[in-house]
Design a protein that fits this description.
The chain is of the alpha+beta class. It has eight helices and six strands. The strands form two sheets. It has a four-stranded antiparallel β-sheet with strand order 2-3-1-4.
């Protein structure tokens, strides 16, 4: 008897396990209920195929026609990088230069807000303008990486039996139909050629008649215009008159 009493004293009881063994039905129902609630919560979670991702990466593009890649580096890129390096939170700066164009990519720490990063880079480029060439006519293009503005679907139109004008008409029709969908925020047409008219001038006749390029430009603009001609009232009716003068061919 003393041995049995000592054996009972050695055995220890784990109360949660004992409760589960004594109430197996209750534990089973609770397990099923928790599993059902978990599956319902998982199915009800909002999900996106293309979630919005904010990456604090800024692009700086500068165009300076007539300069080689080496000149773009010396005249543009080095001054831009010098000012950007003074910004707090920058983790990496990478630049590349080609003929007439310089690109600088600025990567920030993920704790930096993309809007703040964009403003800081714009301020740095403004500070660097004093060291840039004074004959630059094109402003720097500065923008952030926004995945929400990247195209989700690309639709290509082609056909050997169709002209460029016909393909453009089909693309514009398809653009209008797609924009009707409530989920679509923006549709762009790329690659379509716009028609242009070339005006050849005789400079000798222009000098003889004392006509400048500006005079010819203004004359073309004034002919290519549609304007209102007022209202016409009569017989209890009021009509709006409009003079169409835009070029159609």
């Amino acid at each position: 008897m003393e041995i049995l009493d000592k054996a009972k004293e050695v055995v220890r009881e784990f109360s949660p396990a004992t409760f589960a063994l004594k109430n197996r039905t209750t534990v089973l129902l609770a397990t099923i209920l928790i599993t059902f609630i978990g599956i319902s919560a998982y199915n009800g979670m909002p999900r996106e195929n293309f979630p919005e991702i904010k990456i604090p990466t800024i692009f700086v593009g500068i165009t300076y026609p007539g300069n080689s890649p080496k000149d773009m580096e010396n005249l543009i890129t080095r001054h831009i990088e010098k000012e950007i390096k003074t910004i707090n939170g920058v983790t990496k700066i990478s630049s590349s230069c080609i003929q007439d164009f310089s690109t600088t990519v600025v990567e920030f720490d993920f704790e930096v807000d993309p809007k703040d990063a964009l403003q800081k880079v714009k301020d740095a480029v403004d500070r660097a303008k004093s060291d840039l060439p004074t004959d630059m006519t094109i402003e720097p293009n500065i923008f952030d990486m926004d995945f929400s503005n990247m195209p989700v679907v690309n639709v290509n139109l082609s056909g050997k039996e169709f002209s460029m004008d016909e393909l453009k008409d089909y693309a514009e029709y398809l653009k209008d139909e797609i924009e009707v969908l409530p989920e679509i925020s923006k549709v762009e047409i790329k690659g379509a050629l716009d028609k242009e008219m070339k005006v050849e001038l005789n400079r000798y006749k222009m000098e003889a008649m004392d006509i400048s390029f500006y005079n010819i430009e203004e004359a073309i603009k004034q002919e290519n215009i549609t304007m209102s001609a007022g209202d016409l009232s009569g017989n209890d009716y009021r009509r709006t008159l409009r003079v169409e003068g835009q070029f159609k061919s």
